């Protein structure tokens, strides 16, 4: 879907993951098939997902850890879903019979029907969502052990705790909207309470996933976010249960030392260690999750939240989840850019404070307002120096920091197959308070704000009298085309466009020949320096006629020859007001030439 969005492709910069899996290839967490066992596996498992890979393929190496993690999550489905893999480069007959044309290839087999992998991204969450989409099955937690498996390596998680027979249609519908959030249900009063009590312990323990990374030496020291955390010796991300690398972890104050114990060498895996606060230091009081309820876990802010709205309202629940899939305030970086500006089912705008300084009074007010706006906006603080920040500044429009801008995020429906320029709204920061920021967002939600449009300075009355082509800018465009008595022809151009430069003399000649027609205005606007609400320009030059009449104004795009005679013929057909294209005769002795160039004959 993102491939069709020129603007958002420009705004988002997708990173390419790169990591070394040496030492763990060939070790598998799911069934490893051969040409002899493949047919029997398919017979025994009519519903199964198969990864066709090649061990020498870099992209196969990338997806294999995610495939193993997805297999763990799908084991708690109701019923469980089997996953396997096969070296299709070694067992070519199996690959050929299953039409494997590239590595890796992922296929889901459901009672003889085959589904190709059709989801963007190859993280384990994407694989799980792909399977869920075709099977319409849910994660069902039947025990505390299932809950542990579910929460393991899963930063964003939503759990429904429902009594038997409870209608969780809104929960099920919401679960289909997110590729990066995993949903699960515990059904039945007894098991829901047992799992709820276990989750409450998880909720009150503040845990962190500490990325240690690779190491060339036997030990590596990393800084912890706070002192006296209890850290596990087993890495959180072994990729495969058979991973033989062993480690010991020692914590002193706010420093963690990781040491490899099975060898005296370093390690090539991206090691992550789970660290939690000491349970003895955690308050004895802990939350009690009611039945029924929906609980969401996330690795920031308050760490968990219990839904307090109508469990039967999909839109309310969906908006609540969407508002917590990101921190209450983000710092603009690549990860934040992707989370904020990726098109959403129910889009939430971005409220961005762009500033060159930190710890300012504006930032303090912004942080106070962001707490009150949770779920209504994606709040973000951005500088102006990095490449990602500069792209955001360009999207937000010309400014002198600090600036507070609300930027619309397009929905799937808006962006599908279309070029999209986001609407932007500005709030002056002089004397701003948190209450004013909240009211600003409320005015946006109630459609009481006018978008901020990029615009050049308005031409002076003297400049407008020069030449037959009227120059428009962003702030004068709407009033110019809304006349009920005038047909308005507008050339949307770019100053760097070669085709625009070639068309310019012909357009000036057209305007000069029709200068006497009072019912027709011929104008131009630099579409790179001015924004016009409701009009998306995908190529230059673009010529549009706005026929006279009541609003909403009709638009007619010109696609023919750019010769003045041909354009005049087209205008006769499309203009609301009939006109005579023959200029009035000048009485003899009047209109003597001055010898100076007419403004319409001059080049820009």
TrEMBL record:
Catalyzed reactions per annotation: Catalyzes the rearrangement of -S-S- bonds in proteins
Intracellular or extracellular location(s): Endoplasmic reticulum lumen
Top-level enzyme category: isomerase
Compositional bias (Basic and acidic residues): 574-583
Alphabetical keyword list: Endoplasmic reticulum, Isomerase, Redox-active center, Signal
InterPro entries: Thioredoxin-like_sf, Thioredoxin_CS, Thioredoxin_domain
Segments for region (Disordered): 574-604
GO CC, one annotated term: endoplasmic reticulum lumen
Record EC number: 5.3.4.1
Protein name: protein disulfide-isomerase
Keyword Endoplasmic reticulum attributed: yes
Gene Ontology molecular functions: protein disulfide isomerase activity
UniProt entry tagged with the keyword Endoplasmic reticulum: yes
Family stated for the protein in its record: Belongs to the protein disulfide isomerase family.
UniProt-listed SUPFAM superfamilies: Thioredoxin-like (SSF52833)
Main subcellular location of this protein, as a coarse class: endoplasmic reticulum
The species this protein was found in: Cladocopium goreaui
Organism domain of life: Eukaryota
GO terms classed as biological process: protein folding; response to endoplasmic reticulum stress
Domain Thioredoxin: 10-136, 450-576
């Amino acid at each position: 879907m993102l491939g069709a969005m020129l603007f958002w492709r420009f705004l988002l910069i997708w990173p390419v993951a790169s990591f070394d899996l040496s030492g763990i290839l060939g070790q598998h967490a799911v069934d490893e098939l051969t040409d002899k066992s493949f047919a029997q596996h398919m017979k025994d498992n009519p519903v199964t997902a198969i990864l066709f890979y090649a061990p020498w393929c870099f992209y196969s190496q990338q997806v294999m850890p995610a495939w193993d993690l997805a297999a763990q999550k799908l084991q708690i489905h109701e019923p469980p879903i089997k996953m396997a893999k096969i070296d299709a480069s070694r067992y070519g007959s199996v690959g050929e019979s299953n039409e494997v044309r590239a590595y890796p290839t992922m296929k889901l087999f459901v009672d003889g029907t085959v589904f190709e992998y059709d989801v963007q991204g190859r993280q384990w969450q994407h694989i799980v969502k792909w399977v869920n989409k075709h099977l319409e099955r849910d994660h069902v937690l039947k025990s505390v052990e299932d809950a542990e498996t579910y929460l393991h390596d899963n930063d964003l998680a939503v759990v429904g705790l429902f009594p038997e027979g409870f209608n969780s249609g809104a929960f099920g519908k919401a679960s289909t909207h997110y590729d990066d959030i995993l949903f699960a249900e515990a059904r039945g009063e007894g098991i829901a309470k047992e799992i709820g009590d276990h989750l409450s312990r998880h909720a009150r323990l503040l845990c962190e996933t500490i990325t240690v990374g690779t190491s060339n030496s036997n030990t590596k020291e990393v800084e912890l976010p706070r002192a006296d955390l209890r850290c596990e010796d087993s890495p959180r991300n072994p990729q495969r249960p058979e991973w033989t690398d062993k480690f010991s972890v020692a914590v002193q104050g706010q420093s963690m030392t990781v040491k490899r114990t099975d060898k005296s060498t370093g390690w090539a895996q991206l090691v992550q260690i789970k660290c939690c606060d000491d349970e003895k230091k955690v308050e004895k009081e802990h939350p009690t999750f009611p039945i029924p309820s929906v609980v969401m876990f996330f690795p920031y802010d308050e760490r968990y939240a219990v839904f307090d709205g109508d469990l039967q309202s999909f839109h309310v629940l969906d908006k609540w989840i969407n508002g917590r899939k990101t921190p209450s305030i983000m710092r603009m970086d690549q990860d934040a850019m992707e989370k904020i500006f990726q098109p959403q089912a129910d889009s939430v705008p971005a409220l961005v404070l762009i500033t060159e300084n930190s710890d300012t009074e504006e930032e303090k007010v912004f942080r106070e307002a962001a707490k009150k706006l949770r779920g209504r906006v994606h709040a973000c603080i951005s500088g102006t120096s990095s490449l990602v920040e500069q792209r955001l500044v360009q999207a937000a429009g010309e400014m002198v920091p600090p600036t507070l801008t609300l930027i619309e995020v397009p929905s799937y429906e808006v962006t599908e197959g279309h070029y999209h320029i986001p609407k932007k709204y500005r709030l002056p920061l002089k004397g701003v308070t948190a209450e004013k920021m909240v009211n600003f967002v409320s005015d946006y939600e109630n459609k009481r704000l006018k978008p901020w449009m990029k615009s050049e300075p308005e031409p002076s009355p003297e400049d407008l009298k020069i030449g037959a082509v009227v120059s428009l800018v962003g702030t004068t465009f709407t009033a110019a085309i809304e006349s009920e008595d005038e047909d308005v022809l507008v050339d949307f151009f770019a100053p760097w466009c070669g085709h625009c430069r070639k068309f310019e003399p012909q357009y000036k000649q057209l305007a000069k020949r029709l200068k006497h027609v009072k019912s027709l205005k011929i104008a131009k606007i630099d579409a790179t320096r001015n924004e016009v609400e409701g009009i998306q320009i995908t190529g230059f030059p673009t010529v549009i006629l706005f026929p006279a009449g009541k609003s909403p104004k009709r638009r007619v795009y010109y696609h023919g020859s750019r010769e003045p005679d041909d354009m005049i013929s087209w205008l006769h057909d499309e203009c609301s007001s009939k006109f005579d294209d023959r200029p009035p005769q000048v009485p003899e002795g009047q209109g003597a030439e001055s010898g100076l160039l007419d403004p319409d004959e001059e080049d820009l």
